[in-house]
What does this fold into?
Amino acid sequence: MQSKDYNDDILYAEIKRIIENLSDEANAPDPKRKRRLVQSLLEEVKIFPKEGNPWRRNLEIRGVYLPLTGVFVASPTGFEPVLPT
It folds into this structure.
């Protein structure tokens, strides 16, 4: 079980690093950097019409999936170049 605990420590450290990086981007004085951060985290934002008096408005926000590791990006077998033997 030690290897699982070690992997958990790596995962937590990586998550912490990613969150700190997002925090740095969110606190950046450049509005273009902040805009890129929001665009990278949100796939779609729907703003619905105002309703009622006093009015209210519904928002529908869909986030993106942020992979934390490159585990899911391995190429399938057969795409690697093969040298002649």
